[in-house]
Design a protein that fits this description.
Number of helices: 4
Strand order of the largest sheet: 2-1-6-7-8-9-10-11
Structural class: mainly beta
Helix content: 10-25%
Largest sheet: 8 strands, antiparallel
Low-confidence stretches: 1-19, 180-188, 319-327
Oligomer: single chain
Distance between the termini: 36 Å
Shape: elongated
Number of strands: 21
Radius of gyration: 30 Å
Strand content: over 45%
Order of helices and strands: HEEEEEEEEEEEHHHEEEEEEEEEE
Length: 405
């Protein structure tokens, strides 16, 4: 088991390149290498690297180890919370190059910026009653700057979305001289991968009603019985998982995992002279779910998910014929159960570096089967497993691939 776990970890994690470095190029000509975290602030954005916090007005650009790049530029935008215009330095990612350049921004009040006629301007949706002197709603900004080569009806049909703005700016650049570099083609889609592991506690409650069987003169015979409710087990839980975003989404992810959970329930016989082994087994499951990460770029972010799992109980230590001084809890005519279950999970993620995350997770399993043991014999038997949840701590590593896949 230990060998398999080490192999799985090496398969998942080593290709990612944990030791790769990001680079911050400052305006004074110096550069700093390390793991970068970017914070989009109301005033100037901040980049954190090697225990340093650097204001965006001191940064020229950031080059990430995966090849993507952010540049720092001064912009004026309308702050919807304060209801004022604010001028700040923001980290922008270039989408299109040409006579007009289009940029994306991962902030709250605006998502795009335009560079044309030697000037950077935000493309922003602002309320009709906003009191502004510089910032205008994005369609007016596009009209003022691009109308010479983009028809007015086309501008007013443009939505505040990546694809719609890319198409408009592309057409503008083609109209100007037909010579432009469509950077968007190389980053049109992106795939985000997370690979992680967790360890924690598995909690469950069990009810059990069954006879204790022994062989008397070669024939099975009832020598006692068990009838108990509300017996709790709290044992080890471990897991491995992989995640990838769905349809180029920044918030919805498909998650595939494998988990092992230990159960150890004490058993009490009605006959005090009979000592019974604990009901001890391990559940192995393969699960598939959909997770929602609304603020995945933030330092601390929540995550929720739901899905289904197929589980089977293995290593049923005491289901088979007794070889010790105690009687087994379950006769040897019973085997481990397999079933399809459902789950809900929630976690809090903490961004340690641009690629490493720590998380605390809780998962509740909705049991659809009767329990851990599948009846396969002639003796009366009842068993139920419920109130089953896990609490875990773990880590994950992020890898981002951009392309036209």
């Amino acid at each position: 088991m230990k060998t398999i776990l080490l192999y799985a970890l090496s398969f998942f994690f080593f290709p990612i390149g944990i030791n790769a470095q990001d680079t911050v190029f400052k305006t004074d000509g110096t550069k700093i290498e390390g793991s970068v975290t970017v914070q989009n602030k109301e005033r100037n954005d901040i980049v954190s690297i090697e225990n340093l916090k650097i204001d965006a007005n001191q940064v020229d650009r950031i080059l990430f180890e995966n090849g993507s790049e952010l540049i720092s530029k001064e912009l004026t935008y309308y702050n919807s919370k304060s209801k004022i215009e604010i001028t700040k330095y923001a980290f922008l990612k270039q989408l299109l190059d040409g006579d007009a350049e289009l940029y994306s921004y991962d902030g709250n009040d605006f998502s795009f910026a335009l560079y044309v006629h030697n000037k950077y301007q935000v493309l922003q949706q602002i309320p009709s009653d906003a009191n502004t002197e510089i910032v205008q709603t994005y369609r007016i900004t596009l009209l003022v700057n691009l109308e010479e080569c983009a028809p007015r009806p086309e501008i007013f049909k443009t939505n505040y979305s990546r694809n719609s703005l890319v198409n408009l700016v592309n057409n503008y650049n083609q109209c100007k001289n037909g010579d432009y570099e469509a950077i968007e083609e190389s980053v049109e889609k992106f795939r985000v991968f997370y690979f992680g592991a967790s360890v924690g506690l598995n909690h469950a409650t069990n009810e059990l009603l069954l006879p204790l069987i022994d062989r008397v003169d070669g024939e099975p015979s009832v020598i006692g019985r068990v009838d108990q409710e509300g017996v709790v087990s709290t044992s080890l839980a471990i897991g491995l998982f992989g995640q990838t975003n769905i349809l180029n989404s920044k918030s919805f992810y498909l998650k595939l995992g494998i988990n092992a959970r230990k159960y150890d329930f004490s058993i009490t016989s009605f006959d005090s002279n009979i000592e019974v082994e604990n009901l001890e087994t391990t559940e192995l499951d393969f699960n598939l779910g959909v997770n929602f990460k609304p603020f995945s770029s933030k330092k601390i972010s929540p995550e929720i998910g739901f899905g289904a799992l197929y589980s089977t109980f293995i290593h049923n230590k005491n289901i088979y014929h007794n070889t010790s001084q105690y009687y087994p809890a379950i006769p040897n005519t019973y085997v481990g159960n397999s079933s399809l279950e459902y789950f809900l999970e929630a976690s809090i993620n903490y961004k340690v570096t641009s690629r490493l995350f720590l998380f605390a997770e809780g998962k509740y399993i909705f049991r659809t089967g009767n329990g851990m043991i599948d009846r396969n014999g002639g003796f009366y038997f009842e068993e139920d497993l419920y109130n089953n949840y896990t609490l875990s701590l773990g880590f994950s590593l992020e890898d981002i691939i951009s392309g036209t896949f």
